[in-house]
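Handout, section B. The chain below has 121 residues.
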Amino acid sequence: MNSYGQERRRFPRANFPCKITIYLPKEHTIVTHTESISCGGIEVKVKENLTVLSIVGLELFLDKNKVIQCKGRVVWRLADKGGVSDEELVFDIGLEFVDITHDDMVIIEEVVDDILRRESC
């Protein structure tokens, strides 16, 4: 993400590659990994062009014992020719957490704080 996007962020973002399942309408799913995470949402790379402002189901596998289920809103999308061929696009997608419990938000905040603390040492 460019520096302009980083300046607009409300929450600190940490590099944290965890497994995530994205549930799209009509029972279609995408399994991928997060690129980064914050208390406000996540960034993922996918081969599908998700519609900005659409709502999707999310399952984040933060560790072996903790899975967070919530919904996410697609807030931005950038196309990247990072696929195998020049014709295969990969999309960087920003998902904002919506419909998430307070307890799950606290867990995410603790994970992000821990990562950022370790990175600053």
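Note. Residues 39 and 89 are 28 Å apart (CA to CA). Compare this with the example in section A.
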